[in-house]
Amino acid sequence: MLNAIEYLFAKAIKKLHLRAIKGSQIHPSSKVCAGTQMVDSRMGKHSDIGYDCLIVKTNIGSFVSMGSNCRIGGASHTMDWVSTSPVFCGNKDHLPQKFSEHPFDAFVQTNIGNDVWIADGVLVRAGVTVGDGAVLGLGSVVTKDVPPYEIWGGNPARFIRKRFDDEVIAALLRIRWWDFDDETLRGKANLFNDVKAFIAMEEGR
Questions:
Q1: Torsion angle of alpha carbons 129, 110, 42, 134, nearest 10°?
Q2: Which keywords label this protein (predicted)?
Q3: How would you class 187 by CB atoms within 10 Å of its CB: exposed for 0-12, middle for 13-18, buried for 19 or more?
Q4: Which sequence positions are flagged as catalytic?
Q5: Residue-wise pLDDT tens digits, 1-48
C-alpha cells in the first residue's frame, strides 16, 4: 500500500513540473509533457512529446511520438572562426562580457517528418532532417539526415533496416495519410493494422 501511495505521489510531482514553451506553435490535438522546453518550434496534429525534452528551432510533423529526455536541435558554435566562444558573437547568451559582436546564426532549422517515432533519450543534431515514418532507436545520437521509413539506432546512429519494402514505402509517401482530416481517418482506421490492405484500398488495387 505504501509503495502504491509513494508511486502516485511521485507521479503527481513529476506532472507538476512546468513546461517552458516560447515562440512555438503546437496543434491543439498534440501534447507536450511536463518539464519539456520548446523554443521557436512548430508541432503538427496528434503528436506527443514526452517528459523533460529540449526542442529548439524544430519543425515537428503530425502523428509524431517522442519519448522522454530527448534533445532535438540546439545552438551551433563558430567552428570556422578564430574561436568557438560566444563572447565574439552578437547573439544573446548568459556570459557577462563580449569582446566583439559579429553576426552569427547559432540556430539552424531541424525537421522531424510525419509519423516519426523517437524513443527515449534520443539526441538529434541541429540541422538534421528525419523523414516521414522513420524510427530512431533508444538513446540514439543522430548526426545525419534519416530517409523516410528507415530505422536508425546507436551512437552515432546508423541505418538498421527499412520498416517496409520500397514499394510499400513509395505508396505510403504518395498517400500521405497524415494529411487526412480526423473524420476520414476514423473511417479508414480499421485498416491501420494491415498496411497492404490499406494501400490497396487507397490506390484501388
A1: 30
A2: Acyltransferase, Repeat, Transferase
A3: exposed
A4: 77
A5: 778 777 777 777 666 677 889 999 999 999 999 999 999 999 999 999
